[in-house]
Design brief:
Residues 206-323 form the SSD domain. The protein is of the alpha+beta class. It has 25 helices and 18 strands. A hairpin with a 6-residue loop joins strand 7 (440-445) and strand 8. Helix 2 (9-30) packs antiparallel against helix 11 and helix 9 (225-253) runs parallel beside helix 11 (293-324).
């Protein structure tokens, strides 16, 4: 497929351009129909919601507030009335506004604070917050704030108001792409090579978002789904293309023509991309086991974007590589290739030195990495799930100011009142019991409607307070049963508490599901029990440390002001499920790219130390570059204006940084050095039963007996293994392999450094040499009809790779 896409590059490019613009035109014509559906069956708040819907079926429009405060006098003063009344009347006349209920109406006395300095009016739109045109909301904001003067402060709060405060759509994505482009240019040193991963990400995310927008008309997709889809799509799209382009450039630098380099890159790194994309989708699908309908649309949007990003990386990318040809290298690299010829196969520089250092000190590396991750994970012990509200907005926003004014004038609990809903029966005893309950500031029973009575209960504490959670439990467990009533506690605060409880109860099953699925995938791919067990353990360590960072920032408030992320509060209840899905998927990506290279070397040489050393040396630089790109993309979502996306962005940025820079490049290889050959252990009985799913290309078959001839080996390779100073190296392992990596002969050099290996037939073979105190070297050798003399020079710290 890679060769076909390379040779028919214009056709492939036109198909992708047509798909992007076609989906974009269809999506813009159809519009959006995102819906935040919180379905919590068998919960008390859901029962309360059902009764309220029965009593008040026509209250679907969003209700926002206009709040004002005077420095001197009272809001009832005539001068204040004369400024506020005309503004409220103008807002009420706007098309799309259903009603405005103010404190100067007949029933508005309760909308003035006790000291008379703060009042509010309720603005009810005819549509839900996400359906109200931003132009209308902005007109409401501008009109209300015209009433401001010295000594009179006017602020607005509510879901619709919050939407117009968000930064321009696409700002976070744009900043993330620019940051990724800078990292890519520094990594590649080539403008054309830099544009390839960006182009793949744009096509993958673009088609994914347009397709998700169209699907929102057929199923419930929450409005946060496209934001999370673009977050994960940009990250994986750029990273997947980066892995393939890096392998392609390496192939050209080692003498392959551009077409063969592209085919080889797709046949190696491309396979790993397919496998990694599958693991991400499986991790995302793990959210379905929570049975939270709100997350179903998130799974659809993010998985679809990942699938299209993988498709773009494996079809569009080889076409673009064909268009660029050798220009995928920088001018300096092309000049060096023309002047000096192909580069030798091997890894050198910082990556090789780090790989050697990890091999020499595995115990110290494991200990330091574990201590660091444990320290970062400590805050997770105080994790508290809940829901953010406008009290967590930045202090400069009008929604935060309105929230604080309402809390100041009417009490902290005013921003999150509870609704005690009962159907039929006498409610006086229940009202009296609620009024006598500690932690309740005010109780107001609304007139019955359709046999349903709603009693509004205002707590003395804020919606995010632990005391408010305890009050809800007290009402449900003691107060309502004591009054002999059949009632349910609802409202936004109660829904948030129930959602947190349900999520926390189902989290262990969710974690077990995605870890189990990941274990099975790695088991089949790498034919090992230890590798997937190590990966599962590392994923749990990464999750604990990243959530520790999240708690320290968003719950404890460390660095919130520096990041401009408002006020501390509980962690969004839905975030652990979403973040763990993305984290486990991305962690599996890095595990696959790292271990697949190690497994490739292990299959070729059966030398665990060499396999781990070469795998780390060859992949650590690209994994770190990929992680740095993801960190930039995720951190850019702090600018999204959405607190949930900002939390996810910071949490995932921390998780990816810890996973790539500490776990995959230090802890995992160090642990694999300590485990030795047991890394690749698999019981024979299990080996026979497992299906074959190869991440690496299929090996070549061994030479047939006929090819070997009746007289034994056709020839031999012999020579000496020496150091750069000419000193003999005794005990060096010399392995002869077929071009496909099958081991044909293996010997150890003698005291004088001499060796001899048998060759079955004339042809091209791979000769790999390694010694414990020295480096390693692997070279292709061409053997004719007679013996070949080949001396090997080992250099300390050098890591050669088998390719």
């Amino acid at each position: 497929m890679a060769r076909w896409c390379y040779r028919h590059r214009l056709v492939v490019l036109l198909l992708w351009v047509g798909a992007l613009f076609g989906l974009g035109f269809s999506a813009s014509t159809a519009g959006t129909n995102y819906a935040n559906v919180f379905s919590l069956p068998d919960t008390d708040s859901k029962s309360a919601y059902d009764l309220m819907e029965k009593a008040f079926p026509n209250t679907s429009g969003d209700t926002d507030t206009v709040v004002w405060k005077v420095d001197d006098g009272s809001v009832r003063d005539q001068a204040v009335r004369d400024r506020i009344r005309p503004v409220l009347d103008d807002i009420a006349k706007m098309p799309g506004v259903g009603a405005v209920t103010g404190p100067y109406d007949a029933r508005g006395a309760a909308q003035v604070s006790r000291d008379g300095t703060i009042a509010y009016a309720e603005v009810t739109f005819v549509k839900r917050a996400n359906e109200v045109p931003k132009e209308l909301v902005q007109d409401v904001v501008d009109t209300a704030q015209k009433a401001e003067r010295a000594g009179l402060q006017v602020e607005l709060g509510g879901q619709a108001i919050q939407r117009v405060q968000e930064p321009p759509q696409g700002l976070s994505e744009g900043v993330g792409i620019v940051a990724a482009a800078i990292v890519l240019f520094l990594a590649f040193g080539s403008f054309f090579a830099m544009t390839l991963p960006i182009a793949i990400a744009v096509f993958g995310v673009g088609t994914g978002l347009f397709a998700t927008q169209l699907l929102s008309h057929t199923t419930d997709v929450p409005d946060i789904a496209p934001l999370l889809a673009s977050l994960i799509g940009l990250g994986v799209g750029i990273d997947y293309a980066l892995f393939i382009v890096t392998r392609h450039r390496r192939g050209i630098q080692r003498g392959l023509d551009p077409e063969e380099a592209a085919v080889t890159a797709l046949n190696t790194s491309g396979r790993a991309v397919l496998f990694a994309g599958g693991t991400v989708c499986i991790a995302l699908a793990g959210m379905l086991v929570t049975q939270l309908r709100f997350l179903d649309g998130v799974v659809i949007g993010t998985s679809l974007t990942v699938v299209l990003s993988v498709l773009a990386a494996t079809t569009l990318l080889p076409a673009l590589l064909g268009l660029l040809g050798p220009r995928v290298l920088s001018r300096r690299q092309r000049r060096r290739l023309a002047a000096q010829g192909p580069e030798p196969e091997g890894a050198s520089g910082l990556a090789a030195r780090w790989s050697t250092a990890v091999e020499k000190r595995p115990r110290r590396t494991v200990a330091l990495a574990l201590v660091l991750m444990a320290v970062l994970a400590v805050p997770v012990l105080s994790l508290r799930l809940g829901a953010t509200d406008q009290g967590n907005d930045d202090a400069s926003t009008t929604t935060r100011k309105a929230y604080d004014l309402l809390a100041e004038g009417f009490g902290p609990g005013f921003n999150g009142p509870l609704q005690v809903v009962t159907e039929g029966g006498e409610t006086s005893a229940l009202v009296k019991g609620l009024q006598d309950t500690p932690g309740v500031a005010r109780v107001a029973a609304l007139p019955p409607a359709h046999g349903v009575t709603v009693i509004q209960v205002v707590p003395t504490t804020s919606p995010q307070s632990v005391e408010t959670d305890r009050l809800i439990d007290r009402l449900r467990d003691d107060v309502i049963p004591s009054a002999g009533a059949q009632a349910h506690v609802g409202g936004v605060t109660a829904v948030s508490k129930d959602f947190s409880t349900v999520t926390g109860d189902r989290l262990p099953l969710f974690i077990a599901t995605i870890i189990g699925l990941g274990f099975l995938l790695l088991l089949v791919a790498f034919r090992s029990l230890v590798v997937p067990l190590t990966a599962a353990l590392m994923n749990l360590i990464a999750a604990a440390a990243s959530f520790g960072v999240l708690v320290a920032i968003f719950q404890w408030g460390w660095g919130l002001e520096l990041l401009g992320l408002g006020k501390e509060g509980p962690i969004n209840a839905f975030l652990p499920v979403i973040m763990l899905s993305l984290l486990f998927g991305l962690s599996m990506d890095y595990q696959v790219f790292l271990v697949s290279r190690m497994h490739e070397e292990w299959v070729h040489t059966r030398d665990n130390a060499r396999a781990v050393r070469v795998g780390l040396a060859e992949t650590s630089r690209v994994i770190n570059s990929a992680a740095l790109i993801m960190v930039c993309v995720f951190m850019a979502f702090v600018l999204s204006g959405d607190s949930g996306a900002a939390m996810a962005g910071v949490g995932l940025a921390a998780a990816v940084a810890l996973d790539a820079f500490i776990l995959r490049t230090a802890l995992v290889p160090a642990a694999m050095h300590l485990l030795g050959d047991s890394n690749w252990w698999l019981p024979k009985g299990l080996e026979k039963r497992l299906p074959h799913l190869a991440v690496e290309p299929k090996e070549e078959a061994a030479p047939s007996p006929a090819a070997r001839g009746a007289g034994g080996p056709a020839s031999a390779v012999h020579g000496f293994v020496r150091t750069a100073d000419g000193e003999p190296v005794a005990g060096a392992a010399v392995t002869l392999m077929s071009a496909g990596g099958r081991q044909l002969d293996r010997v150890e050099s003698l005291a004088d450094g001499s060796y001899i290996v048998s060759v079955p037939a004339p042809g091209t073979y791979l000769l790999a040499t390694t010694a414990p105190t020295y480096g390693s070297r692997a070279r292709h050798v061409d053997v004719g009809q007679g013996p070949l003399v080949y001396d090997v020079e080992l250099v300390e710290g050098e890591v050669d790779a088998v390719n």
